[in-house]
Amino acid sequence: MELERPIIFIDLEATGADALRDRIVEIAMVKLMPDQSHTDFVQRVNPGMRIPAEVIAVHHISNEDLANEPAFKEIAPKILEFMEGCDLGGFGLSRFDIPMLREEFKRAGLDFSMEGRAIIDGLSIYHQKERRDLSAAYNFYCNKTLVGAHGARADALASMEVVLAQIDHYSDIPRDVRGLHEFCAKQDERFVDNTRKFIWKDGEAAINFGKHKGTLLKSLVRDQRDYVEWMVQEGKFSQDVVDMCWKALRGQFPARSGETNSQGDSAALQSP
């Protein structure tokens, strides 16, 4: 890659994926210079809030690991200094890392300007160059060109061939329908329901949209019962979400283990 000035490749780990509500727990920056040499900046950060167990299972940074680390506000000036005069790169940084950094700098009272910076996102390149549609899957798994794509019958037949070819291709996935159903359903275990309206947070269901995003369902029933009742009655949510809310109003809450939690106060979040 030809460089006129340094470019910094960034990766963040955080307490979650919501730029407004979550906080950074680790920042890594690799500054690539025009002469192809590079320097690194790596720092863990005390987020001032508890990291949910489900997130710890992903990045393996515990609350205890961060107890003696600085807050983002303490290191923000150093980060800005390191980034001065640099373009930015990464994988998915336009969706996650840059919005997260903007919010953290805002809370620290500092201006994180993107003016004049080039953004090189490997995820965008990947999506543009490596198609992930049915035609691409048909070519990859079946070594055939899909003729009549977007015609219902052609697509249905191709879908069947792709699934059968995937079963032959991957020796470690189930061969039976029930096993395949469970395999497909657990692809993203962060979410409680298939429509992603609820997300797991320390083993309990938390709402994943709207003004109450991040709030435990248990707390909503206790403090905003009318909102949960609205979700049941509105008619815009999937049946499994409606059933979950209906049960919650009666004191039954989903749990990661598959068992039902009875109503009660959740543990308070604490800083690491």
Task: Explain this structure.
This protein is α/β, with parallel strands linked by helices and 272 residues long. It has 3 domains: 7-126, Ribonuclease H-like superfamily/Ribonuclease H (Nucleotidyltransferase, domain 5); 136-185, no CATH class; 198-261, no CATH class. Helices cover 37% and strands 16% of the residues. The chain is built from 10 helices and 9 strands. The chain has helices at 53-59, 72-83, 97-107, 122-129, 134-142, 152-169, 177-185, 217-223, 225-233, 239-249; strands at 7-14, 24-32, 38-44, 87-90, 119-121, 198-201, 204-207, 252-253, 261-262. A 5-stranded mixed β-sheet has the order 3-2-1-4-5. α3 links the parallel β4 and β5 (119-121). α5 (134-142) packs across α6, α8 (217-223) crosses α9 (225-233) and α9 packs antiparallel against α10 (239-249). It is globular. 22% of the residues are buried.
Low-confidence stretches: 262-272
Strand content: 15-25%
User: How many beta strands in the DSSP annotation?
Assistant: 9
Could you estimate the helical fraction of the residues in percent?
25-40%
> What does the radius of gyration come to?
23 Å
Number of helices: 10
Largest sheet: 5 strands, mixed
- The level 1 CATH classification of the largest domain is Alpha Beta
The CATH homologous superfamily of the largest domain is termed Ribonuclease H-like superfamily/Ribonuclease H
Give the overall shape. Answer: globular
Compute the separation of the termini in Å. 41 Å
Query: How many domain regions?
Result: 3
CATH topology-level name of the largest domain: Nucleotidyltransferase, domain 5
- What oligomeric state do these chains adopt? single chain
Class computed from helices, strands and strand pairing = alpha/beta
Task: Let me know the average pLDDT.
Answer: 88
Give the name of the CATH architecture of the largest domain.
2-Layer Sandwich
